[in-house]
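Task: encode each sequence below as structure tokens.

Item 1
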Amino acid sequence: MGTIVPLPSTPVEAVPTSPERDLLAESTSISQPPSAFEVAANRAFRGLALAFAWGAVLVVVWVVGEVGHVAQPAIRAYGLGFMSGTVWDANRQSFGILPQIFGTLYTAVIGLTFGTIFGVAIAIFLSEGFLATFVDRALRALGFAEHPWLVTLPTRVEAVLKITLELLAAIPSVVYGLWGIFVVIPLVRPGADWFNAHLGWIPLFGTNLSGPGILPASLVLAIMVLPTISALSRDALVAVPVRLREAAMGLGATQWEAILGVILPAAATGIFGSIVLGFGRALGETIALAMLAGNANVISWSLFSPCSTLAALLANHFPEAGTIEVGALMYAALVLLSITLLVNIIGAVILQRAEAGLRGLR
């Protein structure tokens, strides 16, 4: 009998199941190179995005160039003395904008200070859920915490507050101006009179508040920049990694110690960016300041003194300006534009350095 030699066994490939076949087909389709249409669409999108980016830059250059071109006669006639002069008299063709530069920066800084304090406080209040916690505790104390409709009430109340703050940015400037005249000025006048009567020897309270002035204008400016600062600061605080907060808590820090020592420094770049944007808004505000600042061509450190700003100067004088005064007004507009651009450039540089310093913390 012959010897039976066993045949070599060959491995039988497993037949892929239906889900495996779908996954294999999907991976095969993903690994395919892009089609000619996809390549063309990608290049078109990149080109369009690049064109819009350069278009924005060209628009800024075009605006600056047009303003500078119209202001060229005034620049040649008045030179740098235009920014140190204190008289604006179109009849004598004497123009100077030092009081307007001072008023613009003074009101913007004061308004930004109040807006930053309240804006960052509101951002912390919303990002840390203090409002929702308070509403939830109140519902538990009243015995309504388990009610089906009231379970989500804390979140809804917090959302209503966020939307209300954002809607402040949609109110027209003239409405803010009217509100400042009929509400803010009568509200602050008794306190201003008391400070002037008892602390009038301090330069900040050296004059009385007869009506429009620096303080009412700055308070309205603070409310106008509040939505920008609070919304962007809240986004920056929410973006802080949770592990930083947990690490601070794990080391024994209280909630406020974690907020002030860890969360705020980590979100500093975003908060500073919101402050820079708010400063730009305050520098360029026109109608509200034209109604509330007083339009007085004076330089005074008193919070109750009237003043004037560059934007208000343009709004008040441009409709009736002659050819010579139009050139001077465009020169003032060029100065205001330069101040705004300089503030944004300085803010961008500080943001880059702060981001580099905090890079290892994120």
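Item 2
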Amino acid sequence: MSGLKPIGPAMTNPDMVLTIVISCYNDRDLVEDCLRSIYQNPPSAVYEIILVDDASADGTSEMVRATFPEVRLMRNDVNRHYAHSNNRAMDEARGRYVLLLNSDTVVLPNALDGMIAFLREHPEAGMVGCKVLNEDGSIQWTVKALPNPGAAIFGARSLVTKLFPNNRFSRHNLLHIGQDMTQPFVAGYVSGAASMMPLTVMKEVGHLDVNLFYHVDADYCKRITDVGYKCYYLPTSTIIHLNHKGGTMLNLRARYRSLMGFEIQSYRYYRKHIQRSSWSWMNIVVALGLFFHFLVLASAQACVEVIGIARALSRPKASVGAQTSGE
């Protein structure tokens, strides 16, 4: 954990049970929906919300001040990205439990109470994640084994998994497949879209790793496990995650940069948690494997982009044709 800072001392408040931490960037409408969902489906215990606006230029801070004055608002002068922003809020947390919540989520009834109750009843739990749904109600693949070389072939992004999701290798990586979704179970890691931990565990583990983004949740769960706790998945608490509808994935360049960033940070995770030696030949094998994986994903993304362009171009023609036939 070299270079990672410990959590700073928090202001004490014996009555504060939950601190909800949200960081955001240029997604004002999503932030508003997220905050409204919390107030519509709040925990029964005393709670606070800390929101860090990561130098948004869309009026997010102004909206929060005007519409949700009770939210503890922080604003970065420059864009510092996810881990920096969350670390800043984590230093200020006063609740006995801390929930890291993405800004593009919608909290459903009883989700927060369920997670709090689980942590109270399971002192061995260092973190608990909940069931995460897509906008259409399908389950997001958010509970997984810790990153490993096999995930490139049988992970959530794999074509093999998308075509044959019930194979035993994909089940090893995507832990919700074949599970009793009425009972909690131990996970390798759970999605940072909505993950809750005791404040004491958070202080013991320290800050999120600012050198990671795509694997920051896996890294944190690995570090929680390394100090002797377990990470759990709680399928009876549910949120909706409007995946990648925020301000960072809205253009073609950003999407391809995201694909490359995923591979680079996969290698950083490998070097941090899996690598046995700085001089091992496996380092070259892993790097080449990740580069090949990038080429496959980039090719698939190109097909998606071409299909999207073709559909967009076909819409005006269909409209003109409809007008002509109706005359």
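Check on item 2: The first strand starts at residue 18 and ends at 24. DSSP finds eleven helices and eleven strands in the chain.
End of task.
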